[in-house]
Amino acid sequence: AQSVTQLDSHVSVSEGTPVLLRCNYSSSYSPSLFWYVQHPNKGLQLLLKYTSAATLVKGINGFEAEFKKSETSFHLTKPSAHMSDAAEYFCVVSGSREYGNKLVFGAGTILRVKS
Amino acid sequence: DAGVIQSPRHEVTEMGQEVTLRCKPISGHNSLFWYRQTMMRGLELLIYFNNNVPIDDSGMPEDRFSAKMPNASFSTLKIQPSEPRDSAVYFCASSPQDRGNEKLFFGSGTQLSVL
Known about the structure:
The complex is a heterodimer of chains A (115) and B (115). Chain A is mainly beta and 115 residues long. Helices cover 0% and strands 52% of the residues of chain A. Chain A is built from no helices and 12 strands. In chain A, the strands form 3 sheets. In chain A, strands 2, 5, 6, 10, 11 and 12 form a 6-stranded mixed sheet that branches. Chain B is 0% helix and 54% strand. In chain B, the strands form 2 sheets. In chain B, strands 2, 4, 5, 6, 9, 10 and 11 form a 7-stranded mixed sheet that branches. In chain B, strands 1-3-8-7 form a 4-stranded antiparallel sheet, with no helix packed on it. Chains A and B meet through strand 6 of A and strand 5 of B.
């Protein structure tokens, strides 16, 4: 089985400062990992994904995430926050075919960006 | 492409009433997913279809919930009878791959309030 834990329910940063959203996962096999973003009143949008290629994954809007197997982590970072980054972010781990290809979502982290 | 289209955007109903949520996936996508999002539980997969066939409905909470996909361009999620604890945002997503867990495209969701 797999699970995902987002360590912070809320993160607040100032505009122009770095963003770090933490995610730890548990999986009995090599997982695929994703970060999704949800802006207010909008649907979910894929930011980036890791599928056993390069451990540092670059996504849209300047976000990156690094897969660290030894730490079972997949933290999301951005060097400089922008006001438009304020949203809720979901870390997601996928299952294999024998687990029904399910996606397991973390509880979400709300990112607040202060001017 | 207009993306995944869900209707209605908002639904307010009284306890005991039947609720039907609708979804039009992106044309050509093989897989369709229904998710429910609540503050308490985050995002939960309810059911997913591959080529119009339900593959895994283990996430459907109760017999009051049912989903259909009569053709490749339309799916419904029905709750009958509805209860206040069903209040949530319901997302539909589609994927171009039959594994279905790599690249999901989400609709904007239906905000359901059961009074």
